[in-house]
TrEMBL record:
GO terms for biological process: cobalamin biosynthetic process. The lineage of its organism: Bacteria, Pseudomonadati, Pseudomonadota, Alphaproteobacteria, Hyphomicrobiales. SUPFAM superfamilies: Class I glutamine amidotransferase-like, P-loop containing nucleoside triphosphate hydrolases. One of its GO terms (molecular function) is cobyrinic acid a,c-diamide synthase activity. This is Hydrogenobyrinate a,c-diamide synthase. The gene is cobB_2. Its EC number is 6.3.5.9. Residues 6-191 form the CobQ/CobB/MinD/ParA nucleotide binding domain. Residues 246-438 form the CobB/CobQ-like glutamine amidotransferase domain. It is an enzyme of class 6 (ligase). NCBIfam families: cobB, PRK01077.1. It comes from Methylobacterium symbioticum. The keyword Ligase applies. The record marks 433 as: Increases nucleophilicity of active site Cys.
Amino acid sequence: MSAAGILVAAPRSSSGKTTVTLALMRALARRGLAVRGAKCGPDYIDPAFHRAATGFPSFNLDSFAMGPPLLDAVARLVGMQADLVVAEGSMGLFDGVRAAENRTGANADIAARYGWPVVLVLDVSGAAQTAAAVALGCAAYDPRLRIAGVVLNKVASARHRRLVEAGLARTGLPVLGALSRDAGLVLPERHLGLVQARETADLEARLDRLADLAEAGLDLDAILAAAGGGTAAGAPGALPAPPGQRIAVASDAAFSFLYPHQEAGWRAAGAEILPFSPLADEAPPADCDVCWLPGGYPELHAGRLAAAERFRAGLAAFAADKPVHGECGGYMVLGESLEDADGVTHPMAGLLPVSTSYAKRRLHLGYRVARLVADGLLGPRETRLVGHEFHYAGELTAAPAEAEALARVSDAEGTDLGFAGHRRGHVTGSFFHLIASEPA
C-alpha cells in the first residue's frame, strides 16, 4: 500500500464537493506536495478539473463498473509518485445501486477499500444544529468508514457558524474549516454538469482563488494529518487493452469524454493515440488502425460539424475498411442527422442508421451492462461490457433489431432494456460510455 489519501464526500449532491476538492488540491499543490486526484463513479468532467488543479491526470474509481483487478490497477495509477491522493465523491456518500456488497458504485466502497478517511462537506444553508445530526448519521451508518471531520460550506455569518459548531461539538466530529456562501465560487454549468475545464474562462485564476480561500478558511494541516490508507499495488495488465496500435481519437470542444483509465491502458500497452479535431474540419489520420469518437457536446456544434466536409468525407473513407466507434455524442455524429435545441436538423456522417434529437430534452442516466451481439471492435460476440449513460438526447428512429444492434443491454439491477446501439460494416456506436469489459 502507498499514497495516503482522503475522500471528499457529502450527504447529498450539490453540497460543494467539487469546490472543496479543487480548493484543497490547488492549495496543497502550492505547498509543493505531489497531489493526485481521483473521482468516485463514472463522472467524466470533474477529472479534467482535477488535472488542472494538480497538474497530473485524475482517474475514475468505480466499484460497480470495475471489477477488483481493474479497480486496483486504476488506483495504482492514482497513487503513483503521490504524496497525497484527494478523491472526490459523487452524489451522496452512500448513494449507489443495489448490488453485491462493496460493488454498489458508492463513494463509501472506495473509501473502505483503500482506507481513505472521509472529509465530509456539509451544506449548512438552511440549517444550524441539525447539520450535526446529518453528520452523525453519516459517521454511524457504515462501520467500514472513518469520518475525519467536516467542512462547513455556504456559511451565512459568524453567528450561523457558531450555531452549527455548537451542534457538532456534541458529536465529537472535528470541524476542519468553513467556506462562506459565495456565488463567485460556483463554476459555470451546462446540461451535463460543469462546463468543461478546457472551456472555463480564467480557470487558473479561479483555481488560485479557491486555493486562497482554502488557506484562509480550512485547517490544511489537520486535513493532511487526517490522511490515511493507501492504494493497492494493482497489476497494470488489468487496464483496458487498446483496440488498435494507432488510434485516431476525436478531441475538441465537441468530443472530450474519454475516460482517463482507457487512455492510460491503451498507452501502457504501447498504443499510439493521435488526436484530431472534427470542429477544425480534420479527418482521422489515414494511417491509423482505429477511429474513436468520444462523447461530448456535438449538439452545441451541430452546424459546424455538418459543414465540416473534410471531416465527414475522411471519416467515411476511413470507415470503408477500418473500425470506427462512437460513444454518446460520437454515436450521434455517426448517425444520419442531429436535431439541435432550436429544432434545426443537421446532417451528420450517415454511417449508422440512427437520427437523434436534442430538441425535447429527456434525461437518460445510469449504468448499462451489455452483451455484444456480434464480433467487433469492442470484443467478440457475448463480451460483457459495463458502461454509463448520461445524456438528454433521444433517438428519432426506431430501436435497432438484433441484426443491426451493437448489444443487448440491461440496467444495473438487471432490468432488460432491449437492444441498443448500432453496427453497420466497420462502424459501431452506442449512447453508453464504456468503462470496463470482460471476455464472454
